């Protein structure tokens, strides 16, 4: 099996691990990798015809001709351009997974890049899974050195740490030697960037596409012999220090190291709501409390939620003007959860955001920052979100949530994930195509990538470009 990256690892040892460790055979890792591919392909299909995906495609279609599949379209592009468009689509609706060790949308950058590069070189689904899990390990390795300080400083780790992880995954898929794997990681540090100032704009999902594209480019350049510094992360000018990370000693890394593969020990946090994860624990609490106490929205006077500072800063739009801002609005997400008992794709359209009953509820939701634990910024989900429903009869109902539904501590059921896949896929595919694609993805190790990507293309043009009418 592919062993996890040893603690205290240098870049040269990391590259050696990428180049020489045997393919994985860990059952839990394979299962979770399959689930990540299923979930991310679903998100790609759901976001394939979102406005940002359409515009990114139009920007590259004439100058990036190639043979790689673009989700939801019959046109093809170069591997890098396909990864750019598909990565943007994967993250367009903020329905894709989170990866705690790096605070990245790990799969939205890895899966589109690996599908595109895998289609070019003709690999099996098993090889894709192996490269995916390797890329996840690289993200975890770098995340342990940079999180939480990097994320708290305002960097969007999906487009910084994520780019390096994609380069490692693509180097693994290309089967380059250790020297070239090191160069791939090094070159990726020169291509990584992105601020959280873009939250609530089209540039936020674009970050995932840019990371997917850059990772392929870095690995291909290194494979062709383009060299980079062999210690790009350490030192005063290294990637970690320049990006507000912490230059850990070997002893620090030993203490911070996760036992076993990160996909097993930490897992991925799959989403049941298509919006920023910073709102999910509050929404979980609202829905749970209302269900347990058989409440209707009319019985609630106010909702108050106290969240860690990083969540507070991620949700700046108290009165969102469109669906982009609504995904980063605690007031909107909480109001929808209270009014409807669920939050789905149909709640994030311009028309849905303008619903009078929802707008009337926004002032009844208050969000407060609890700050940190007193020792500086903490990692994601190390502090709880505390939500209180203040009822019109004077009662107060409170719930504290550490882990949102979707983590390995509170997993989404296989049935719910299958429903999510079908709900997302039907925006591009007919029912029979959806079912065939789902079955092939559940059997990914035995599939050829050419057979998978043939199913994500739309053969007769886009079938659906918008969600159903809002409730």
Give a topology summary.
Elements: H1 11-20, H2 27-47, H3 51-60, E1 65-69, E2 76-77, H4 79-92, H5 106-121, H6 125-146, H7 149-152, H8 157-174, H9 178-189, H10 203-223, H11 239-242, H12 250-256, H13 262-265, H14 280-292, E3 300-307, H15 309-314, H16 323-326, H17 330-340, H18 350-353, H19 356-359, E4 365-369, E5 385-391, E6 396-401, H20 414-425, H21 431-442, H22 449-456
Parallel strand pairs: 3-4
Antiparallel strand pairs: 1-2, 3-5, 5-6
Helix pairs in contact: 1-9, 2-4, 2-5, 2-6, 2-20, 3-4, 4-5, 4-10, 5-6, 5-8, 5-10, 6-8, 8-9, 8-10, 9-10, 14-17, 20-21
Describe this structure as you would to a colleague.
This protein is α+β, with helices and mostly antiparallel strands and 471 residues long. The chain folds into two domains: 255 residues, 2-methylcitrate dehydratase PrpD; 125 residues, 2-methylcitrate dehydratase PrpD (60s Ribosomal Protein L30, Chain: A, 2-Layer Sandwich). Helices cover 50% and strands 7% of the residues. The strands form two sheets. The protein has a four-stranded mixed beta sheet. A two-stranded antiparallel ribbon has the order 1-2. Strand 1 and strand 2 form a beta hairpin. The longest helix is centred in the N-terminal third of the chain and has 22 residues. It is globular, with a radius of gyration of 21 Å. The termini are far apart. The C terminus is likely disordered.
């Amino acid at each position: 099996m592919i062993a996890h990256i040893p603690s205290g690892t240098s870049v040269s040892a990391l590259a050696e691990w990428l180049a020489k460790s045997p393919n994985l055979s860990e059952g839990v890792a394979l299962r979770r990798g399959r689930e990540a591919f299923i979930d991310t392909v679903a998100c790609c299909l759901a976001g394939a015809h979102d406005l940002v995906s359409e515009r990114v495609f139009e920007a590259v279609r004439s100058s990036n001709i190639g043979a790689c599949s673009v989700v939801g379209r019959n046109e093809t592009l170069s591997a890098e351009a396909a990864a750019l468009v598909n990565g943007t689509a994967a993250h367009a609706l903020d329905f894709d997974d989170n990866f705690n060790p790096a605070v990245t949308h790990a799969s939205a950058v890895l899966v589109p890049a690996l599908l595109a590069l895998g289609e070019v070189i003709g690999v099996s689904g098993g090889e894709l899974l192996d490269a995916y899990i390797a890329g996840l390990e690289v993200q975890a390795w770098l995340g342990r050195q940079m999180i939480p300080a990097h994320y708290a400083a305002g960097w969007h780790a999906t487009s910084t740490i994520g780019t390096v992880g994609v380069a490692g995954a693509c180097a693994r898929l290309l089967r380059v030697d250790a020297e070239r794997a090191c160069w791939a990681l090094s070159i990726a540090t020169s291509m990584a960037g992105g601020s959280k100032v873009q939250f609530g704009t089209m540039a936020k999902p674009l970050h995932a596409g840019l990371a997917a594209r850059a990772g392929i480019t870095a690995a291909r350049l290194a494979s062709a012999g383009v060299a980079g510094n062999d210690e790009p992360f350490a030192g005063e000018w290294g990637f970690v220090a320049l990006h507000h990370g912490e230059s850990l000693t070997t002893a620090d890394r030993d203490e911070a190291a996760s036992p076993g593969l990160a996909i097993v020990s930490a897992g991925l946090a799959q989403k049941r709501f298509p919006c920023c994860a910073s709102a999910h624990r509050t929404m979980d609490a609202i829905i749970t409390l209302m269900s347990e106490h058989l409440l209707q929205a009319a019985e609630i006077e106010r909702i108050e939620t106290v969240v860690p500072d990083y969540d507070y800063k991620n949700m700046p739009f108290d009165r969102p003007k469109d669906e982009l801002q609504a995904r980063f609005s605690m007031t909107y997400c909480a109001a929808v959860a209270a009014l409807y008992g669920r939050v789905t794709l149909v709640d994030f359209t311009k028309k849905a955001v303008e619903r009078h009953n929802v707008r009337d509820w926004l002032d009844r939701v208050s969000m407060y920052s609890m700050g940190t634990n007193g020792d500086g910024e903490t990692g994601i989900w190390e502090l709880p979100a505390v939500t209180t429903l203040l009822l019109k009869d004077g009662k107060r109902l409170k719930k504290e949530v550490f882990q949102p539904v979707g983590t390995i501590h509170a997993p989404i059921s296989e049935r719910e994930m299958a429903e999510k896949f079908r709900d997302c896929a039907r925006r591009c595919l007919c029912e029979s195509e959806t079912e065939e694609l789902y079955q092939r993805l559940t059997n990914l190790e035995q599939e050829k990538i050419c057979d998978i990507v043939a199913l994500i293309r739309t053969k007769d043009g886009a079938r659906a470009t918008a969600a159903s009418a809002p409730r």
